[in-house]
Amino acid sequence: MSYLDWFVQSIDPFLIAPYRWLSNPLLGWLWGTFVLSMWATILGELTLALAYRVNRSKVKEVAEETEDLLEKSLAAHRAGDKRSYKAINRLANEAYGKTFFLQMAMGMSALWPAFLGAAWLQERFGKITWPLPWVGYELNFVGPYLVLYILARVIFARTRRRLPYFRRLMTGGG
Amino acid sequence: MKRRALCLTVLMVLLSLPALALAQDKGGGLTTPGMSAEVKKAIEDSLASEKFAAKTKAVIKPDQKAGYLGIPAAPSPNFIIGLLWAIWVGWIFSTVGAFGGIMAGVGHITVFGLADYAKSFGRGSPVNKLITDSIRVSNQWLVGLSGLISSINYYRMGRLVAPLGVCLAIGGVAGSWLVPDLTAGKISLRAYLGYFGIIVWVLGIFLIYELTPKGAARKKEAKAAAAAFEKAVKEKADTAEQGVKVVSGSRGLMWLALALVVASALWANLIDSAKWLAYILALVGLVLTFFLGEIRFTFFGVEFKFKAFIPMLGGIFIAAIASFLGVGGGFLYVPFLTSVAGLPMFLVAGTSALCVLVGMVVSIFSYMVGHAVVVSWGLIGGELIGIFIGSMIGPRTSKYIPDKVLKIIFIILAFYVGLRYTTKGFLGYSVVPPF
What we know:
The complex is a heterodimer.
Chain A: H1 3-16, H2 25-78, H3 82-108, H4 112-125, E1 130-131, E2 138-139, H5 142-159, H6 164-170
Antiparallel strand pairs in A: 1-2
Helix pairs in contact in A: 2-3, 2-4, 2-5
Chain B: H1 2-23, E1 30-32, E2 35-36, H2 37-48, H3 53-59, H4 79-95, H5 100-111, H6 114-119, H7 126-157, H8 162-183, H9 189-211, H10 213-232, E3 244-248, H11 251-270, H12 275-288, E4 294-299, E5 302-307, H13 309-325, H14 330-340, H15 345-370, H16 377-398, H17 403-426
Helix pairs in contact in B: 1-15, 2-3, 4-5, 4-16, 5-7, 7-15, 8-11, 8-12, 8-13, 8-15, 9-17, 11-12, 11-15, 13-14, 13-15, 14-15
């Protein structure tokens, strides 16, 4: 058995439970998938918070360097000094590449639970489809899961101030 | 401008929903446990062909455990090796700042053993092409996610230039669906490896230039000019006009051009007939950018301008490469826009991230809906874990490794990878180990 198969089977009892809370199968599926999306969101945010916590000095350092070069390049452009503007822009390119990719790699840490959730959904509900009216196509789990995941993200963003650990993160503590 | 950028992003995400939903179900969904209809169809097509039937029967062993894409006896990417490789990719992202997408692609092609498996079905086999396209789309998923995260970050910072992003997207959307339309299912793994190798060579040559005396002198000159300028500037900048403000430009026509290319992508992928209409819509949208004239905007009170067709041309070319190879094109957008269009890096980086996102969404949509390509969700999820770990290790190690040493390491890697894939692709064998 591969590690992924082992993971999917191990986590199955925990993830399937919310699907059985409601008697209506469709509502039960939507509710269970929404709960899965919330778990994926929260786990992703915790991972992202860990990444920022571990890398905060580096992120601050590269961000400051980048801001400094931004101000200089704009000042050069404003002053009409094309040579300096191009030169500083070149330096800024390099500095910014580091910021850009570092933050991007850390940002990916917020998304891994969503994909593992999709892998579990594929194993559990891969055969379920919803026919779309008039167009002759069928939806599988991916479309509804994505909608519910985005909804979970929006709800989390609006309520994170009230959540204990995340509230502390937002105020710069912890 | 912020609202329009938000609307555009939401529109792109919504467009991707039917893509994801429909893609996995074209042909009716899973027909056997773990195997989708698309995979089943590819296997049936291979079996129906005299040229590939024998090889297909030899490679697929129904009594063995299902591996990648649910195919019996297919390699199941080794978790530990896969995780270590993904950590390596994350380390590269957070230290060098480039080349990460290429390394992710190398992982999908070589480290996970998928390429050799695809090859075992024979050149031109439908299963070979399905797995090749799956590798391409898996690369695009990782790259598309990076574009999504970056676009959100830049949008929050108010550093997205909507007209620039739209002009890039006009070319990017067209390039992103036209290339899959023209190449999906037609490119064998060997050809893909060869072209992938060429791009890696190009990157390596670019990195080498930076280490040459001329390249190093340019950087030294840039630092000296920056230091000299800083001394010379006495007065504080007037930052009353913060953020991006568009001064002039034919925006109505610009949105029309974008709508036309998006319509062309949707038509090509969802409507089975009259494909010529999709080509015409794309062509009209692209040509319209030549009539948009010059677009002027201010950023922190400083005025910038660009001719609308320049980013469009860059967008189509770069998105075509990105869509064909499954790498982001981000490393091409930024130097293109800063060097050719003369725009400041801080605006270009964020805007090009948006274009990467748009290009990848359309490309993934085209491959997965239009051509029924499938991916392994668990594989991508596992890779994201590794990238996260690597991104935490990278900043810790970068202070001990000078930039120059990092660049030398990557030049060696780029030449090795480029040489291996180019020769394996175009000659049929690699001139460097493992042969």
